[in-house]
Amino acid sequence: MSLFEHILEGVPDSIFAMMEAFAADTNDKKVNLSPGIYRDDNAKTWVLPSVQKAREILVADQNLNHDISPQMGNPDLVSVARQITFKDTLSSRIITSMQTISGTGANHFIARLLSDTLQPKTVWLSNPTWENHPKIWTHVNSAIEQHLYPYYDYRTSTLDIEGMISTLKERASRGDVIILQVCAHNPTGLDPSMEDWETIAEVCEEKGIFPVLDSAYQGFATGDADNDAWAIRHFAARSRGTMEFAVTQSFSKNFGLYGERVGVLHIVTRTRGSAAKAESALKTLSRAEITSAPAFGAKVVATILQDQVLREQWQEDLKTMSGRLRHMRKRLYDELIKRNTPGNWAHLLTDIGMFSYMRLSEDQLAILRNTFHVYLLPSSRLSWTGLTSRNVEYVAESIHKVVTLSM
Ligand SMILES: Cc1ncc(COP(=O)(O)O)c(C=O)c1O
């Protein structure tokens, strides 16, 4: 008998499952609208020109080696990561920053650290949220309760800010943790306004809730990395800079470095003493779990952000990516309106970033996949990255048929 026979089978991850199903589909009309990975208008993975150039510089460097990074990560990466995240607020706050295995690793490390130190009773997640948030917290400590705060209004496809605020006011306790996505919310594409962010920060402060600001799409939302970091800088500056919080930063999407696993965790503390303790705990954790973070992608990001010309190219690249997605939003919207497809599609134009919620039922999604070979996640999240000028009419026609068929 095998020692592994008693393992309980896990629930397959919907994104990876969908990618496998898509790869096995031999129909030449197939369209993959499920993964959050940027594709160009030919549905091909895009290496950002700024990344291409940085890669060439690194590879041509005779001194490029494969040494291990220091415990807190590649110092150049950590330095530029702090700068693009906090900008003007950097000098006024005490911030401990460590390179992590991308955004997932940053989320994991902060969950582990908070579970050990703050010992929250509850972690609050948006309804809905990135499907890995609950998995990471369950994996770290299944005794921490997970509650959803209202976020997406399923009737109107708008942000339920009143529901969110009143739920937190009524039900959250001092010492709870809240995960807040900074911009281009996954999976809904709905972000709070600046005014909403002020209210959210106020409630966190009043109630003593520890915010983890998950920043996976900086630059993707508006095409401008500064605009997209507004909420973080607001949290850093409010109440004369006394609020403690963490930021989990991913470079997967905004640099197209998905497989390189580049990320940074920032912890903003009130005192130097707590910063030193946080740093020591992170070093212990990192040593036991990963020893050292991956080097190459970190060098790519640092090379770009330290060089004026490459940095400007990167800003152009962000505009190219976010602009293409905005264009596809408009194209699909127009095609649905042209067909008088029943439903409220206005939000497709105002949602932000890679995703939108289509509010299609499980049955409709199954027909879309099995009959038309158009793949969305089971949650009805559509990733705009798979839409191109060549397939947008086919996708609109497929959605139209599925929606009208089931009426
Ligand atoms: C909200 C959110 N947070 C974090 C991540 C982490 O991504 P990665 O580990 O690829 O950097 C993602 C990726 O999809 C995300 O959508």
TrEMBL record:
<dbReference type="InterPro" id="IPR015424">
    <property type="entry name" value="PyrdxlP-dep_Trfase"/>
</dbReference>
<dbReference type="Pfam" id="PF00155">
    <property type="entry name" value="Aminotran_1_2"/>
</dbReference>
<keyword id="KW-0032">Aminotransferase</keyword>
<comment type="similarity">
    <text>Belongs to the class-I pyridoxal-phosphate-dependent aminotransferase family.</text>
</comment>
<dbReference type="InterPro" id="IPR004838">
    <property type="entry name" value="NHTrfase_class1_PyrdxlP-BS"/>
</dbReference>
<dbReference type="InterPro" id="IPR004839">
    <property type="entry name" value="Aminotransferase_I/II_large"/>
</dbReference>
<dbReference type="InterPro" id="IPR015421">
    <property type="entry name" value="PyrdxlP-dep_Trfase_major"/>
</dbReference>
<dbReference type="GO" id="GO:0030170">
    <property type="term" value="F:pyridoxal phosphate binding"/>
</dbReference>
<keyword id="KW-0663">Pyridoxal phosphate</keyword>
<dbReference type="GO" id="GO:0006532">
    <property type="term" value="P:aspartate biosynthetic process"/>
</dbReference>
<protein>
    <recommendedName>
        <fullName>Aspartate aminotransferase</fullName>
        <ecNumber>2.6.1.1</ecNumber>
    </recommendedName>
</protein>
<dbReference type="InterPro" id="IPR000796">
    <property type="entry name" value="Asp_trans"/>
</dbReference>
<dbReference type="GO" id="GO:0005829">
    <property type="term" value="C:cytosol"/>
</dbReference>
<comment type="subunit">
    <text>Homodimer.</text>
</comment>
<dbReference type="InterPro" id="IPR015422">
    <property type="entry name" value="PyrdxlP-dep_Trfase_small"/>
</dbReference>
<dbReference type="GO" id="GO:0004069">
    <property type="term" value="F:L-aspartate:2-oxoglutarate aminotransferase activity"/>
</dbReference>
<feature type="domain" description="Aminotransferase class I/classII large">
    <location>
        <begin position="29"/>
        <end position="399"/>
    </location>
</feature>
<keyword id="KW-0808">Transferase</keyword>
